[in-house]
Amino acid sequence: MEPMSEENxxxxxxxxxxxxxxxxxxxxxxxxxxxxxxLRREEVALLAGISSDYYLRLEQGRDxxxxxxxxxxxxxxxxxxxxxxxxxHQLAAPRARRRPSRRPAVPPATAQLLQSVGLPAFVTDRxxxxxxxxxxxxxxxxxxxxxxxxxxxxxxxxxxxxxxxDWSHTAAQCVAVFRRRLGSDxxxxxxxxxxxxxSLASAEFRKVWARHDVRPxxxxxxxxxxPQxxxxSLTLxxxxxxxxxxxxLAAYHAAPxxxxxERLALLASLTTQQARRATEPARHGVSGGAERRPxxxxxxxxxxxxxxxxxxxxx
Length: 315
Known about the structure:
single chain, alpha+beta, 434 Repressor (Amino-terminal Domain), Beta-Lactamase, five-stranded antiparallel β-sheet, two-stranded antiparallel ribbon, 13 helices, 7 strands
């Protein structure tokens, strides 16, 4: 299990990313058998223009105040993109005091949007707990329910794996976005418990988490094999929700006029019909012991539309 080190987040990240860069990536010759994956510490130091001893202190957490120039040089050597470079700087910055955890509330306008948007949509908090969802989202992805965690569902729910045609890629992206949203605040008790649970239960999660990948929140294609409407190629878009709680609104949508849009509309129709049937009054009778019977073909009530229970009186 990859430890959630509160004391050496920067060093953990540098070591994980160093192990993913090969000498060939940096144009270095390879002689003999290498006993370490990726670059050696001294190779990183040489390419970044810093001393080997200083880099060792950074990885071991004995120096925690590298300059922005040093961080940029390390980012170049470790082949970090803009998002990962920003994350590296964030890890090295002084940490603000963490506020006590509290359950976030969905703004009323966002809750109203969920019910009126006409797309499968849901809201998650910083730890990817689902805190609001509309019926179409649950029909599309049954594990998207209030109280469920998207990471836990991805890695521990077999139905989620069956639903996503590109499960491995989608799950890895989910982890990378999760780490990016957390920033340096990986010691939140809820995060520690979640990562510990998933690390013990899922070898795939341990492998992905150990890479320390970070990804920006961008639109991404999603391919599904839905049991009711078949194959779907959708886009998952995510938007930040105003407020201090780090909430995010996610919505699935299809290209207008496409076969995927038609299948998504079919699923919406099926979901509406199911909800309507669930809320219809029982047809076994009406108040007062009366039973409704069909009316006339012209829509006007027939003579025998309502029959009182019991035998008809004789005259």
